[in-house]
Amino acid sequence: MSDLQIASVTKHFGETSVLKGVTLDVKDGEFISLVGPSGCGKSTLLRIIAGLETPTSGNIAIGGINVTQLRAADRNLSMVFQSYALYPHLTVAENIAVPLQMRQMSALQRLPVLGSIVPGARTQKDDIAQAVRHAAEMLEIAALLDRKPGQLSGGQRQRVALGRALVRDPAAFLLDEPLSNLDAKLRVQTRAEIAELHRRLKATFIYVTHDQVEAMTMSDRIAVMMGGEILQCAAPDVIYEDPDDIRVAEFIGSPKINILPVERNGTALTVFDQVLNSRLSIDSPKVMQMGLRPEALQLTQSAPRLTGRVVHLENLGSEVFAQIALDSDGSRVTLRAMPEQRQNLGLGAPVGLSFDLNAAMIFDAGGARLRQVELAATRAAEVA
Amino acid sequence: MVAIDPSLAADVTKPKADNRQARTGWGLAAPALILMFLILLVPIIAAGVLSFTNYSLGNPSFDWVGLQNYERLFTRSTYEKMYVATFTYVVTVVPISVGLGLGAALLVHSLGRIGDIYKTIYFLPVMATLLAMAIAWEFMLHPTIGMVNRTLEMACGTWFEVIPFFADGCAEGFPLWLGDRDYAIWVVCFIGIWQGFGFNMVLFLAGLTSVHRELYHAAEMDGARSGWERFRLVTWPALGPTTVFVVTISCIRAFQVFDTIEAFWPQGGGPNKSAYVMMFAIFEKGIQQNLIGIGSAITMLFLLFVMFLTLIQRWLVERKVHY
Ligand SMILES: Nc1ncnc2c1ncn2[C@@H]1O[C@H](COP(=O)(O)OP(=O)(O)OP(=O)(O)O)[C@@H](O)[C@H]1O
Ligand SMILES: [Mg+2]
Questions:
Q1: Which of A243, A278, A310 is the last residue of a domain?
Q2: How distant, in Å, are the alpha carbons of A23, B84, B195, B304 from that of B275?
């Protein structure tokens, strides 16, 4: 069993508080992506799980056993470092073999010359060479096995670092942006390899990434971190469709979600003085924010809820993203349209937009989701 | 006005301009080149030439003696003693001072603030001149009133006498140290190590700061549990270039040892010439006895050793320790 519990972990570096009480339960065999803006503490959290950094307070348990006091080497985890951390004096093959040699061979067997006459060393060495070759072929670095890290490109180094981590069979894998330096093709391919490996080994993965596609496609759950806290940890579709916090909604999704200011006037919900419905309860806040994904907006001629002009157009082939400056306050919203609608979207063309209130997410001024308000609003819409 | 073909004009002026530039370049470099030649190369060439003569300072002329000086270097027993003393010193002082320097650097590096205090203390002998320190050592090692033998005598009558050294010492007196041909060179070695390892420590400390910290974390994740395993996997390879440099510098310094010997035995290079090292031989022959020819020959031999060491260092750095 290698489930992982992170219980209210905090970390201070001197005065600065980097982690502010992180709690996360990872089930055995689960693939968790950790996403968040640069500097939010992802690497720090990963290093605390690994045991390379001690938390200021809180506990880490692996398989139900508290390992907070256990040293990193004894936690049986495997890690890809953001900076790769390859041994510069060893060849690629030797680098990948190090974790196997350290953990499978005795100190006697590892001795340079004497080691080979110790019983069992020969077969051990062959097994390790086999495993190294296998990992290298998977990551397409078999041709580089005799080179030193200094003679590799950034992407190649990253694959060696990945190989060194994947060659073992640990309780859990901790990967810190392992694909950040690969080209698009290799990234897709390696992504599939890692997903395949995850299915095959049924090991626990914690995967730090900046790439939303990686997070959305590979993970069982995504944990969105910001400012040293996990804002939400849920399945990718939940994170996208039903975020708890405006920061989560803004961070996930590309292009970014549109945020519009909404107000409550009496019982009416209004956007730019236009009444959306009038069934809100009096105790909901006066000032709120409404989130609309680009695909929730539709072009319309009759009775548009919002009007504006096209200021920028991005044609991706299968879809078109148009930035529209609203007439009411000049703020910009992004619309996703189909390619056949392009003729209506010339630069500067006036457009009308409508949206379904069901697809809107409402947050309070501080950013917390207001599901009560949404419920009231949509029920009212149905009645109307 | 005659119309000049512009392309022709360019063809003529361009080489001229190039020439002028080249001449200016040489002109500007000349002072440095001349100085280098005069100050660095001429003395060495002069020494090389003199080593084939019997020149003495003040003599109006000299004779060419061919390889006679060098022949002496390889046949006379005095010079055999010189090689024994020099190589004993080098072979003892270099490994021990490098090893101690590395050990001290690792220990000091693992300390926080207090490390600075250790650094200063270990560096003190390096900063003090060896000549002044030699006087202090001479006093301490004095056979009868010296601190060393007085301290050793305190062990007489205690269970220390089980050790043969103390048993002999208490019965027949402790060694004369500087006056004993069996001990003299070792005392010089000891002082060389005492004086040199702080310098090596500082060099190793500089090397240690360049070790990527993340590599220790990677080693830990890969299962390197003991300090020795981490040292083998990360520290030692990272210190490769530093180590080659430190060993070379230590070797050259060891070949150059002179001031301790001059301070202890100004007249003869130790009891029975047991501490008659190369530098002292050069000094004695070339300066004290005014035998410039033989002094130059030893100098050339010395340069050969040092050059050889430097070449080994370059080869090692290029082949083995740069990644
Ligand atoms: N040893 C340290 N001492 C002081 N501050 C540190 C230390 N390590 C990290 N920090 C700070 O902690 C914060 C989080 O760092 P961390 O490396 O975890 O960020 P991250 O989320 O991994 O960012 P990125 O996506 O850029 O890798 C940063 O503001 C950083 O400056
Ligand atoms: Mg990071």
A1: A243
A2: 71, 9, 17, 21
Domain contains A156: yes
pLDDT of residue A381: 56
A95-120 burial: b if 16+ Cβ within 10 Å, else e: bbbbbbbbebbeeebbeeeebeeeee
State residue B320's pLDDT score: 66
Q: What is the pLDDT of residues B272-318, one digit of tens each?
A: 888 999 999 999 998 889 999 999 999 999 999 989 988 988 888 87
Distance between Cα A361 and ligand 1 center (Å): 32
The helix (run of H) or strand (run of E) holding residue B169 is helix B164-172
CA of A43 to the centre of ligand 1 (A): 7
Q: Which domains are seen in chain B, by residue range?
A: 72-319 (1.10.3720.10)
Q: Which stretches of B76-110 are DSSP H helices?
A: 77-110
In this model, does residue A346 exceed pLDDT 80?
A: yes
pLDDT-based confidence at A180, cuts 50/70/90?
confident
- Asked if residue A174 belongs to a domain, the reply is yes
Q: Which two tokens stand for residue B160?
A: 């220390």
Q: How far apart are CA B125 and CA A144, in angstroms?
A: 49
Segments forming the whole domain that contains residue A339: 255-383
Of B215, B223, B238, the CB nearest to A73: B223
Query: Are both A58 and A147 inside the same structural domain?
Result: yes
Last residue of a domain, one of A243, A266, A291: A243
Cross-chain residue pair B214–A88, CB shorter than 8 Å = no
pTM (2 decimals)? 0.81
* pLDDT bracket for residue A314 (50, 70, 90): very high
Q: Any chain B CB within 8 A of the CB of A112?
A: no
The residues in B 190-229 lying below 8 A from A, measured between CB atoms, are 212, 214-215, 217-225, 229
Do residue A159 and residue A210 come from a single domain?
A: yes
- The answer to whether ipTM exceeds 0.90 is no
Determine, yes or no, domain membership for A250: no
A215 and A326 fall within a common domain: no
- Asked whether residue A89 is assigned to any structural domain, the reply reads yes
- C-alpha of A22 from chain center: 16
The answer on A259 and A238 residing in a single domain is: no
